[in-house]
Design goal:
This is Gfo/Idh/MocA family protein. By secondary structure, this protein is α/β, with parallel strands linked by helices. It folds into 2 domains: 149 residues, NAD(P)-binding Rossmann-like Domain (Rossmann fold, 3-Layer(aba) Sandwich), CATH 3.40.50; 230 residues, 2-Layer Sandwich (Dihydrodipicolinate Reductase, domain 2). The protein is 34% helix and 21% strand. A hairpin with an 8-residue loop joins strand 8 and strand 9. 42% of the residues are buried.
Length: 396
């Protein structure tokens, strides 16, 4: 398309994120025109269409058939990401998908296959994931340092991220929340897709996963609300991933250890403990039994006065749509990587044994279906539970 043409976009799904985030920044983008909003709840679609002077749709097929859109932002419950992305690609519509790409690896692969197939007919088709945490300055700096090899051979990563406190009222605020049938999981599926993506963005997908997930330990829910996982990578690095929605005050502490030192990110501060020489070389060669490597404490300067968040991801996406290609914050095809880690953690926990990656994706999908079919959980939805979702985004 020509640079002078505005990208015609629609938003499918007008829940908290669709209605309170996506629809707002779309208004601020000069190269984008909002030509439709779509939600199964007609009142919602009508309300936002009137408010933003656009057209209401109640079914995504109808939207795709009638609106003449170039691109779609998908912000519906997780299971519906798969059919909507597939249908969009079939029609040559560019897709920006909310996290997670899917609930399980098989569905994610279906979306990726549909994209690859569609690219034969539409070679300039763009597929982006809304992994806005990649835009946060501290994480960008960690990526720069890890990719740049500043730490040399990595040996251990420990990420304690328990700053995800959610009350029972939060879980009671929506009928699909924290159910196997509605959401497909708990903290790993809802709060942590960003963290799982950041982990693989920095270190790759582990080769082996040992997961320990507690189901409804602190909340009246049927999915996991506390997870501890252990990862092994083929390069010898090990990882720990510790998350819960039941800890207050929570912690967000990220330790990355390599032969040349240790990075610690916590409380808006990034510290490098820089080794004067390789600790691996030192431990092999030193004649002293207990002598540590000489280490220098350095606070790494990080420029936090930069644009971050959903809008930055969207700007890159729409620029790529206009230019017939370009660098995205996160390619849609990368969405399967963090999902692989999350599914692997749960499969390991269900089977009470370490899993090798890739694991049997059919086994995990069947387990999910079984959990849905045998669920005896009765969901209590309390309409008085209000949630301001601006509080849920990481400010790192």
């Amino acid at each position: 398309m020509s640079m002078s043409d505005k990208v015609k976009v629609a938003i499918v799904g007008l829940g908290n994120i669709g209605a309170n985030t996506h629809i707002k920044y779309v208004q601020e983008l000069s190269n984008v025109e909002l030509v439709g909003v779509c939600d199964l709840v007609r009142e919602k679609a009508d309300k936002f269409a009137a408010q933003y002077n656009t057209k209401a749709y109640y079914d995504y097929i109808e939207l795709f058939d009638q609106s003449g859109i170039d691109a779609v932002i998908i912000a519906v419950p997780h299971y519906d990401h798969t059919p909507i992305t597939i249908e969009a690609f079939r029609r040559g519509i560019h897709v920006l998908c909310e996290k997670p790409l899917a609930v399980h690896v098989n569905d994610a692969q279906k979306s990726i296959d549909a994209y690859q197939e569609a690219k034969i007919e539409y070679p300039e088709l763009i597929f982006g994931m809304m992994f806005q945490e990649r835009t946060l300055p501290f994480y960008k700096k960690l990526k720069e340092l890890v990719s740049g090899g500043d730490l040399g051979q990595l040996t251990r990563v420990t990420w304690i991220n328990t700053a995800w406190f959610r009350s029972q009222a939060y879980y009671d605020s929506g009928g699909w929340r924290a159910t196997w049938a509605g959401e497909g999981g708990g903290i790993l599926t809802n709060q942590c897709p960003h963290n799982l993506d950041l982990y693989q963005w920095l270190f790759g997908v582990p080769a082996r996963i040992s997961g320990h997930a507690n189901i409804g330990k602190y909340h009246n829910i049927e999915v996991e609300d506390e997870v501890t996982a252990y990862f092994e990578h083929d390069n010898g690095m090990i990882g720990h991933f510790i998350v819960t929605t039941a800890e207050s005050p929570g912690t967000n502490r990220f330790e990355i250890v390599g032969e040349h030192g240790k990075l610690v990110y916590e409380n808006d501060k990034l510290v490098l403990y820089k080794n004067r020489k390789s600790m691996l070389k030192h431990l092999r060669e030193t004649k002293e039994g207990f002598a540590n490597v000489e280490t220098w404490y350095t606070e790494i300067p990080v420029n936090t006065k930069v644009p971050t968040g959903h809008k930055v991801v969207a700007e890159k996406f729409f620029a790529a749509v206009q230019n017939g290609g370009g660098e995205l914050i996160a390619e849609g095809t990368e969405g399967i990587k963090g999902l692989t880690i999350g599914n692997g953690i749960m499969l390991s926990s269900f089977n009470k044994q370490m899993v090798n990656v890739p694991f049997d994706a059919d086994e995990y999908e069947l387990k999910l279906k079984e959990l849905i079919q045998t669920s005896k959980f009765v969901k209590t939805v309390k309409e008085d539970a209000t949630s301001d979702f601006s509080q849920s985004f990481s400010k790192a």
